[in-house]
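Progress report, Aim 2. The chain analyzed during this reporting quarter is listed below.
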Amino acid sequence: MGLKPKWSLIWAAMLAVGLTTGCMASTSEGDSADKDGLEEKVVIYSPHGKDILQDFEKQFEKKHPHVDVEWLDIGSQEILDRVRSEKANPQADLWWGAPSVMFEQAREEGLLQPYQPGYADALPKEFRAADWSWTGTSQTPEVIMYNTREIPKGEVPRDWDDLLDPKWKDRIIIRYPLASGTMRTIYSAMIYRDYKESNRPEKGYEWLKKLDANTKEYSANPEMMYSKVARGEGALTIWNMPDTVMLKETKNYPFDFVIPESGTPVLTEGIALVKGGKHPEAAKAFYEFVNSEQAMKHLAETYYRIPTREDIQGLPAWIADTRIQSMDLDWKLLQEKENEWMDHWDQKIKNGAKQKEE
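Predicted structure tokens for the chain:
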């Protein structure tokens, strides 16, 4: 999800030059608006990758032929850094896609323009900023992913602590955590379960030590992890729900998932208007467009995104029939402690012999 093909890097470089030199920028008042009140273009920063961005560019331009959609496909952290550096002269109008913690950082730094969308009543409070500086577009639950040929459904671990059972020794393959936002989130959440009461990470560290004992390998990248679990070199892993379903349906991998009974971290992807953007009306129109009921269904069916809106009907069964028990997490604290906790895991807990190179 969110792939970035090589050619998009060339486009990104070209767009970056345009943004740096100012040749893409309009006057401070923005482009002249058409009869529907939209400016002549909208500039979007997004990590969603070429497929999604091209898809919605075409759809939006078909609906609004006079609006030129321009997008820059770069990573979430790069977007935050760029929006910060451009604060005095914003080049983007819309930021589409990144974990909510990054949008919170941007909100605290005054980089976002509050906007309450037309579907606000269908959006639970946990999926938006209190002042509407950002809203959630999709949610990503973390799950226990397993090989259905290796483990009968009735024997699959049902909760996080079940992964520590000695019977799973050398049957768990995990994506190398330091390089993975998904894994860093899961590991931090495991520490936070006790930390929230004790303000001490030791019990969480002990949990990770026991998981390390059962882990056969830390794979260098997701593809390596997928293939090894699919071939039965490992029987299970911990990963995210949308990727599990995507691999099952598009690659016929023998995968299924369990959402841990005690609750799971649920990452929220967001969207926001950039404060001071030069094409605010076109940005609002695109914001509404990509979060419409039709768009949410399309993103779910084609790109395996789980919408945050509660009023979307006719979603795929893997979404509609699954109850997501969200873990109560202090995301700000996790963000503050993540590097400290992960450094401890890397230096004091991890069995280095299990770390595999590409």
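The two ends are 20 Å apart (CA to CA). Residues 331-349 form the longest helix (19 residues). These observations will guide the mutagenesis work planned for the next reporting period.
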